Amino acid sequence: MPRKAAKLVGLSVLGIAAVLIAAAAAGLGYRAWRQQVAAEILAIRSPNGVQEGRYVVLGGIQQWIQIRGEDRGNPVLLFVHGGPGSSTLPISSGWRPWEKYFTVVQWDQRGAGRTYGMTGDTVAPTMTLERMTQDGVELADYLRRHLRKDRIILVGHSWGSFLGVHIVKQRPDLFYAYVGTGQVVGRATFEKAFENTIARLQALAQSANNREALAELAPIAANPVANPDNRLVADRWSKALALPPDAFRPAGPVPPLFMPDFSLLDWYNRRSGTAFSAKYLRGRVSPMFQRDLVALGLEFRVPVILIEGDADDITPSGPAEQYLKQITAPHKEFVPVRGAGHFIPFDRPDQFLDELVARVRPLANPPVAEAGPMATSATP
What we know:
By secondary structure, this protein is an alpha/beta fold. It is built from 12 helices and 8 strands. An 8-stranded mixed beta sheet has the order 1-2-4-3-5-6-7-8, with helices on both faces.
């Protein structure tokens, strides 16, 4: 290549690199500005409020928690996230109204989010249901002492609902109530989800007049066992028939990418923690599939409220409702949310708050005077 041409190519490469660097810097600067604006939107300014994040030692390792609320006199609500491994920190701006009625605690569990960022893969041998149950018990006891409460409320979502029941059953004296949403009861939950998937695929195949799909799906529909061979067939036709994924869009004033005090490293750790946790806590050999909540005993010493979407395809509400009918508790309620899917606390946070205030808060505190209009619930 002639020297002049080579020089021009070199200058072009440098120019492109400069443009890319400038674009990246501009993008990072814009994100930083949006995060600063978001921090102002979400700031707790009440004189008796609390807004803190810290590592605490649970089960011998540093685990991250966030505590937010407008009034320390309010009941404490510990949210136990799902995934497993899916920290809720960046997708929870829709919970800002919750902080008027509760002191809301988020916890990056062992193997998740910032906790995973602190420990990495070193906790692999301890990624067990028993160890994580004890982590939750230790956290609940810490929150009681730290926030000067007799008891707290536990809300468990998806995997967190399975873990949450274990925590509450082990130490009911620490809790005013248990609230489950996207409740997992064991293998029955996932067998029902698979049965629903096959039914949805059959409907799509029928609509497309796909005889091959209908022929392969028919014997599975007659005996919808979620064994590996049947799952391979379901996965293949899910792609071929374009079965819509189970997705959601978090509600709230701050998009996840611009959540304040959540760095790109935090995003990396969140994604890595989810993949890491899945190795030990998901699939056919996971505790959710191999164990059953019924085996813990059907007697609860705390009130139990299940808030369930009637359109939840990930953890269908039928097995959860049946489980609630079987248990005994000082108080129990099944609250169906019409048209809602698996992620009610995130894509319908106002509806979820309505149910928390109406059904759960009075279990910890006497009812308070109305402080303003609340979102209208879609539940009966």
